[in-house]
């Protein structure tokens, strides 16, 4: 099996984990606010990876420049969570899911604008098909725009930039190191945000640490949805394009909807069925191998000058 196929399957499994544990996170934030939950989740995930990192012999030392760049990429991930969280105060979860999913088309646009990289036309078409499916899955007839939608859009931009920068820099660093620094960055900034924007006594509450729902959610998301999931993402983006990674991530609401129907007792609506079909169809389209176009010498020279 080609390494690209392994990377694709691995990233789909990660997205499956994120989608199927969405209800676990929802249950947990009934007892604790979002930044506090993310602080516990990402700090625990960092502590889980840290022993592996310390025992691992690096071929080359980690430079200060690499730490700063990786921390900056981690801050973009945190910014996405920050803006998405504040956006949810003013907009609905369904609209937030759709707008966040816009990163699937923002990634190829940003890649061309900033790096002059052209994505495969079939992959770009697959992104638009998947986005159309996401609109069925989440929007319904709600087309109004408010401040929450704008904040969420900036969050989607942050997520898109994170995906692109991950694809660029994960090839230059060890995946475990790259992951650990990013998770630590998100954990630190989530902790700071929790004390600024949320009730300062909540994280210190004795009842919180005896709440089985909260403890279960933190452990499950920290181990499977954070430390392992982001480690796998760093590995996968070494071998597949950022555009394809963004397309895979749009499967998350599909997995979340399936989980809600199977385990949550929700009704399978026509919007859910149609939307899910288009998203999966877009994903399958991206897997179809495209014939390589022959390029003459003049075209190659023009491309190299870009």
Automatic annotation (TrEMBL):
Which locations, inside or outside the cell, does it occupy?
Answer: Cell membrane
Q: Which GO terms describe its cellular component?
A: plasma membrane
- Could you confirm whether the keyword Transmembrane appears in this record? yes
What's its membrane topology?
Multi-pass membrane protein
Q: Which Pfam families match?
A: EamA (PF00892)
Q: List all membrane-crossing ranges.
A: 7-29, 35-54, 66-90, 96-114, 121-139, 145-165, 177-197, 209-233, 245-264, 270-288
Q: Which UniProt keywords apply?
A: Cell membrane, Membrane, Transmembrane, Transmembrane helix
Question: Which top-rank group of organisms is this from?
Answer: Bacteria
Principal location: membrane
Where the record annotates domain EamA, the positions are 8-138, 147-285
Family annotation (InterPro entries): Diverse_Substrate_Transporter, EamA_dom, EmrE-like
**Record has 4Fe-4S as a keyword:** no
Name the family. Belongs to the EamA transporter family.
What is the name attached to this protein's record?
Answer: Membrane protein
Q: Which organism is it from?
A: Gottfriedia solisilvae
């Amino acid at each position: 099996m080609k390494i690209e196929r392994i990377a694709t399957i691995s990233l789909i499994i990660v997205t499956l984990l994120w989608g199927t544990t969405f209800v676990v996170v929802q249950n947990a934030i009934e007892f604790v606010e979002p930044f506090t939950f993310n602080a516990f989740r990402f700090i625990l995930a960092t502590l889980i990876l840290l022993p592996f990192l310390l025992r691992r012999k690096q071929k080359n030392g980690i430079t200060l420049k690499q730490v700063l760049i990786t921390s900056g990429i981690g801050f973009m991930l945190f910014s996405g969570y920050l803006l998405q969280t504040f956006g949810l105060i003013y907009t609905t979860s369904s609209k937030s899911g759709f707008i966040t999913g816009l990163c699937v088309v923002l990634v190829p646009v940003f890649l061309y604008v900033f790096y002059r990289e052209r994505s495969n036309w079939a992959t770009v078409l697959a992104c638009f098909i998947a986005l159309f499916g996401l609109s069925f899955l989440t929007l319904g007839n709600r087309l109004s725009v408010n401040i929450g939608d704008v904040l969420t859009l900036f969050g989607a931009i942050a997520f898109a930039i994170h995906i692109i920068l991950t694809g660029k820099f994960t090839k230059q660093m060890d995946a475990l190191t790259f992951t650990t620094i990013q998770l630590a960055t998100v954990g630190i900034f989530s902790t700071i945000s929790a004390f600024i924007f949320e009730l300062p006594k909540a994280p210190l509450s004795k009842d919180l640490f005896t709440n089985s729902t909260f403890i279960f959610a933190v452990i499950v998301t920290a181990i499977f949805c954070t430390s392992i999931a982001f480690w796998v993402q760093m590995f996968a983006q070494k071998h597949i394009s950022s555009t394809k990674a963004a397309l895979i991530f749009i499967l998350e609401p599909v997995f979340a909807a399936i989980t809600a129907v199977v385990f949550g007792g929700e009704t399978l609506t026509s919007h859910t069925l149609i939307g899910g079909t288009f998203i999966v169809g877009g994903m399958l389209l991206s897997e179809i191998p495209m014939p390589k176009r022959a390029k003459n010498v003049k075209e190659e020279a023009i491309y190299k000058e870009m």
